[in-house]
Amino acid sequence: MAVYTKVNDQTLNAFLATYDVGEATSFKGIAEGVENSNYLLETTKSRFILTLYEKRANPEDLPYFLNMMEHLAGGGIPSPLPIHDKSGKALQTLAGRPACLISFLSGVSVHHPSENQCAALGAMLADMHKVGQSFDESRPNDLSLEGWKELATKTDARADEVKQGLAAEIRAELAALEAAWPTGLPSGTIHADLFPDNVLFTGDTITGVIDFYFGCTDMLAYDIAVCINSWCFDEDHQFLPGHAKRLIEMYDAHRSLTPGEIQALPLLCRGAALRFLLTRLYDWLNPVEGAVVNPKNPLDYLKRLKFHQQIGDAAQYVV
Amino acid sequence: MAVYTKVNDQTLNAFLATYDVGEATSFKGIAEGVENSNYLLETTKSRFILTLYEKRANPEDLPYFLNMMEHLAGGGIPSPLPIHDKSGKALQTLAGRPACLISFLSGVSVHHPSENQCAALGAMLADMHKVGQSFDESRPNDLSLEGWKELATKTDARADEVKQGLAAEIRAELAALEAAWPTGLPSGTIHADLFPDNVLFTGDTITGVIDFYFGCTDMLAYDIAVCINSWCFDEDHQFLPGHAKRLIEMYDAHRSLTPGEIQALPLLCRGAALRFLLTRLYDWLNPVEGAVVNPKNPLDYLKRLKFHQQIGDAAQYVV
User: Fold this and answer.
1) Average pLDDT, chain A
2) How far apart are the CA of B107 and the nearest CA of chain A, in angstroms?
3) Coiled-coil region(s) at which residues (chains A, B) (predicted)?
4) ipTM, 2 decimals?
5) pLDDT tens digits for A260-305?
6) What is the pLDDT, as a whole number, of residue A1?
7) What is residue B1's predicted lDDT score, i.e. its pLDDT?
8) How many domains does chain A contain in total?
9) Using an 8 Å Cβ cutoff, are A249 and A318 in contact?
10) Same domain, B123 and B250
11) How confident is the model at residue B59, as a pLDDT?
């Protein structure tokens, strides 16, 4: 949540001269995203976000993410639009970092989404998946089974520092998921990290979807599972069935779920819970020196995992 | 350079309901100021900065700072204007912190000010001092002689870790300044920290002056001395006489300097250089755990101090 790379007015003005976006009238570093440096830029013509990709971003993946955003924005999804310079390039180098100027989206992210906001999310997610079907690039999901195994191995020795027995619980869950992980479900371009932080609202209307830097090709229903985990539990980690019902129903109204997807939902939800449990556990055990952001509690997602484990039938999500 | 206190949408909306400023359409934490949490807020009516004052700010001083900004803005200085809620209050409590909503100012701060920008600064500073004359509150300058003595004492034992002989240089300079520090010069409300970071430009026009949290009552010419130190040296810490000349001349054109002020300028410049040398030295020796901002090199101001020590006559600043 900080600006890591400083961009001064001279560097900025030289950069903007290669675009047809007008001249800077305001330029402020914003505390958005944990991994990159972001500036809110206002010019004589419009408003933009300038992102400098810091070392945790793999530069080889950046064209995929930018092309994905551009494809989705072109299909009517309120995703940021990467801006091209006068020579047609979107991905640049600025202050020694890969960088991109993207369109600004208004709206405010919600801390406690309402049922209506979950309904809007479901509709938008289904639309995003439909538009994504014509995106012809692909990227494997680094944080699916193989990635979880790697994180489980890296955290195994110390997981019990966080909670007695956690390492064994993770191993058992990973074995169960590996044995039963669905195949053959409709697949395509997914966001894979669609937390409330990454959706901007004006009232109950979605005005922005941001942070596509986990975007990848995977089962579409996995995105729903991520949303159920992150949108449909309250602060005490209690499941909110009304929220899940509206989310799933509106998704289904915009893109019909197949019987296989519905059946797989509890398992996909377990997988998504394990994914955030593992990444949070890793970050908890390996805090970044000097980081301003406090690592998030991994056990929030152990609670969700246990909830999903006792779901026998997807219908229980929409009671 | 970070947001320390998070404000979620519910807290924000409840807060905004006490104002007549419209509803939030965008809300982003900005990486501005080292000591407070700042958000850029856009509403259906206008744009604002929401500041939450963190623990380094003395809550007792906040009414002074806000009243100073309001007085200056009312007198035509492009200072942020504290916004009053429906009951007339500007200083609030939000998320357990003192907080204030202030008007947004456009413009971009310049890294290497030009001579024309120094001229604009001189004119604005003189106007600010004139408008400040009718501000009827006062606050002592914590970072004048007495404050420097305190910092010198606190850093004395370890100053030589930064540079051999530094502690003795500081002691000698402090003694010299104490013996000769001017009295009886025109005094009033000063900014006291008017670095290029704190001035927003559109081209060569000043559109904003920010960060009044060192504002106090002291000799007006001390503000000029701070500006000479922070605006009139290049990256290699070489004095830029053309910059100083335009700054001083334009100040004088808007508010005539007295002979005593002109004569005292070299000494005031030494004092201002010592002030930033000492605060930077203290921060260098006492880094804040987990801070994202790297402490600034105190020796940049030792170089400036040595430059001012060899100035015999203020006329040398404007050759």
Assistant:
1) 94
2) 5
3) none
4) 0.84
5) 999 999 999 999 999 999 999 999 999 876 555 678 899 999 999 9
6) 42
7) 43
8) 2
9) yes
10) yes
11) 87
**Contacts with A, B 184-213, CB within 8 Å:** 200, 202
Domain co-membership, A239 together with A288: yes
Angstrom distance (rounded) from CA A136 to CA A120: 26
Domain extent, residue B143, equals 115-318
Do both B27 and B130 map to the same domain? no
pLDDT over threshold 50, residue A192: yes
The CATH number of the domain holding residue A167 is 3.90.1200.10
Q: How many helices (H) and strands (E) does chain B have?
A: 10, 9
Q: What is the pLDDT of residue A112?
A: 94
The reply to whether A120 and A89 lie within a common domain is no
Q: Are A125 and A194 in contact (CB under 8 A)?
A: yes
User: What is the arithmetic mean of pLDDT over A116-143?
Assistant: 98
Residue A303 lies in a domain: yes
Domain for residue A2, yes or no? no
Which of A29, A109, A202 lies nearest to residue B31, judging by beta carbons?
A: A29
Beta carbons of A108 and B9 less than 8 Å apart: yes
Q: Which of A51, A77, A103 represents a domain boundary (last residue)?
A: A103
Q: Is the dihedral of CA A36, A37, A38, A41 positive or negative?
A: negative
Which pLDDT does position B34 carry in this prediction? 62
Under 8 Å CB pairs connecting chains A and B tally to: 82
**Residue of B44, B306, B210, B290 whose CA lies nearest to A293:** B290
- What is the average per-residue pLDDT within A104-133? 97
**A128 and A45, same structural domain?**
no
Judged by a CB distance cut-off of 8 A, whether residue A24 touches chain B is yes
Q: Are residues A87 and A176 in the same domain?
A: no
- The ranges of chain B with pLDDT < 70 are 1-3, 33-34, 289-293
The one-character DSSP state at B81 is -
Residue B87 maps to a domain: yes
Note whether A217 and A187 are within 8 A (CB). yes
Q: Which of residues 260-289 of A touch B (CB under 8 A)?
A: none
pLDDT at site B72: 98
A15 near B CB under 8 A: no
Which of B52, B83, B103 represents a domain boundary (last residue)?
B103
A60 and A130 fall within a common domain? no
